[in-house]
Amino acid sequence: MNEKPKAGLGGEVVLPAILIVVTVLYLIEGMRTLRPFQEGTAGPSFFPIVISVIMIVALVSVMWSAWRRTGRKEKSAAAALAEPLKVVLLTAAYIALFRPAGYFVSTALYVLALLYVFRFKARHAWVNLVWAVVISGACFVLFSEVFRIRLPKLGGII
Amino acid sequence: MESLTGVLDGFAVLATPASIIAMVLGFLIGTFFAAVPGLTSALAIALLLPLTYSLDVTVALVMCAAIFMAGMYAGSITATTINIPGAPANMMTSIEGYALMKKGLGAKALGHAALGSMVGGVIGALLLMFVAPIMVKVALLIRTPGKFSLILFALIVIVIAQRKSFAKGTIATVLGVMIATVGIDVMEPVARFTFGFEMFVEGIDMMPLIIGTFAISELLIQSERNHQKVVIVDGAHAKIRRRDFLPTLAEIREIGLFTYLKSSFIGFLIGVLPGAGGSMAAFVSYAEAMRASKRPEKFGDGSIEGIAAAESANNSMCGGAFVPMLTFGIPGDPTTAIVLGVLVINGLQPGPMLFANQFDLIAPMFASLFVSALVLIPLTLFVLGPYFIKIVTINKAVLYSGIAVVAVVGGYVATFSIFQMSLTLVFGVIAYFLRKQDYPTVSMLLGFILGPDLELYFRRGLSLEDGNPMIFLTSPDSLVFLVLTVVFFYFFVIRKPKAPVLIKGKIGG
């Protein structure tokens, strides 16, 4: 967390724009389902309305600042996003497989895939497989044996 | 007197085998995570968080304290050996330490960093033991409107202390508060912001947010950089011998006892300030040491005085950061924010009642901070010092694959819920994009943690005066915090302070 990542994908405008949409949906949900005032004082939606307004003002301010900085070209982040996207997709697949395939199989596959994403340089492909089993096994020992946490098993066996 | 007895009892609990193992293990984990660039002690505790369900709370807190202390110290290792600070708090150490490393005096730099960390850590822990019980009495004086204004003050100071755009800090904080509003209302039994999904009724658990923010986002950032290698430059290959670590009496005299003490006090006070953290502590102490030094020309060229000041301050900050967290429930820095999560998960509520009724649970943590600083810092340097350089050469693919498994499975073990596990990924992606655009994700986490109390005291305050917001101005304690908020805002946002030119130049260079 100690290095500042570079900006990209016109994100200075895109991200606040997405957050504005989220905030407006949040505001609508709050106003639709809850009352801001109740018996002369603040109700369940009063505080969310206040923070939504603060959020929108701050987001507009950030977007305005970004627009004003004309002439500053942002790097295309498509290439930079490719690797994180792979990690996100792999993690989503891992989560989906976690219960049906059990801890060990899903984790070994996940680690194996991550080793490729992180460009683990092994002389032989089987070394990656060994590392995947070792890492999965080490984490299994940590969770299941040391901390006695029940993890899902494929067919109740592994 | 009562609190002193409680602290001594804490040392007795720390002497039990389970606590000692937890402390030593925590210290080693903290050392490793802080020494590897990209990893932090906050990440280490975030990964440990799900496991605290299976640990005794006292043992978990002892471990967290040791990780925190080790994390502050061990960042100086890579700062000195390869000029990459393990954490932002070690930035000033890298300026002086690496200059010494290039002269073949790396062991001396590491020795002074350890000595400064040891002195600062011990002073910070002692001050925590004496100041926290007094602060608890102050906390009892603050009423509902004052509590709202105090949390507001803390959130704004945290945004300011991140030293990023104020608007971006506000957005991150409010986003955290918004996430915290999902679920049952803080005052009435009505579900809010469920968007028709039943699983949101129970609200968002703290665990996926913490793991997503600290671990998953870091994983995504590191995946972008997996082609980058650590470059170990000339001079860093010099063999390090254990006897070279020991600072000489002449060197300690040159630094001066007053420098150690002054830096430690500065570090502690900055730690007490919400959100300020180790980097600000190190920076301010370093600047003060340079201002007061008889040899300011040495700064930037391997000044052991600079190392001592920065390291004393950032380790003393550890004790200071626990003060607002334990007494007011307001974390002083990201690590204590996660330790607050450990408390909350185990059903402990920070504040006066914690000190009055459950002091026996937190006293061993104070003792762990003290012993980690006094014993484990020098011991680790002596035993592992010659091998420190090897830490940075660890294979990143293996390391991050392991971290990924611990993080994602950690999201599952808290509630055995695939939904919460998925939220870990969702928050990780959100935090990744926020970090890419320079939004302080720590503010999002603190907004999430402090948001419910902010709303609760706001609405309770209003209900005291039939909805009249003037109560926040007419209540003296509230007014004090609101005035402080305005003062901080004026001096740190409207009239931004400038860093001394010499220091700014050195950081930049």
Q: What does this entry look like structurally?
A:
The complex is a heterodimer of chains A (about 160) and B (about 500). Chain A contains 4 helices and 2 strands, in the order αββααα. By secondary structure, chain A is mainly alpha-helical. Chain A folds into 2 domains: about 10-70; about 80-155, no CATH class. In chain A, strands 1-2 form a two-stranded antiparallel ribbon. In chain A, strand 1 (about 35-40) and strand 2 (about 40) form a beta hairpin. The longest helix of chain A is centred in the middle third of the chain and has 40 residues, at about 80-115. Chain A is flat, with a radius of gyration of 23 Å. By secondary structure, chain B is mostly helical. Chain B has one domain. Chain B has 23 helices and 2 strands. Chain B has helices at about 1-15, 15-35, 40-50, 55-80, 90-100, 105-140, 145-160, 165-180, 205-225, 250-255, 255-270, 275-290, 305-330, 335-345, 350-355, 360-385, 390, 395-415, 420-435, 440-465, 470-475, 475-495, 500-509; strands at about 185, 190. Chain B has a two-stranded antiparallel sheet with strand order 1-2. In chain B, a hairpin with a 6-residue loop joins strand 1 and strand 2 (about 190). The longest helix of chain B has about 35 residues, at about 105-140. Chain B is globular. The model of chain B is unreliable at about 505-509 (pLDDT under 50). The interface between A and B is large, with 75 and 78 residues.
Q: What labels describe this entry?
A:
heterodimer, A: 158 residues, mainly alpha, 2 domains, 4 helices, B: 509 residues, two-stranded antiparallel sheet, 2 strands, disordered C terminus
What is the average per-residue confidence, as pLDDT of chain A, rounded to a whole number? Answer: 85
Tell me the β content of chain A: under 5%
Structural class of chain A: mainly alpha
Number of helices of chain A: 4
Helix content of chain A: 55-70%
Low-confidence region ranges of chain B: 505-509
Could you tell me the radius of gyration of chain A in angstroms?
A: 23 Å
Q: State which percent range the strand residues of chain B make up.
A: under 5%
**Widest sheet, order of strands of chain A:** 1-2
| Topology of chain A as a string of helices (H) and strands (E) | HEEHHH
In DSSP terms (H or I, runs of 4 or more residues), the helix count of chain B works out at 23
Q: How widely separated are the two ends of chain A?
A: 35 Å
Number of strands of chain A: 2
Strand order within the widest beta sheet of chain B? 1-2
- Biggest sheet character of chain B: 2 strands, antiparallel
What overall geometry of chain A do the principal axes of the alpha carbons give? flat
Q: Give the overall average pLDDT of chain B.
A: 87
- The helix/strand class of chain B is mainly alpha
Tally the structural domains of chain A. Answer: 2
- Largest contact between chains: A-B, 75 and 78 residues
Oligomerization state: heterodimer
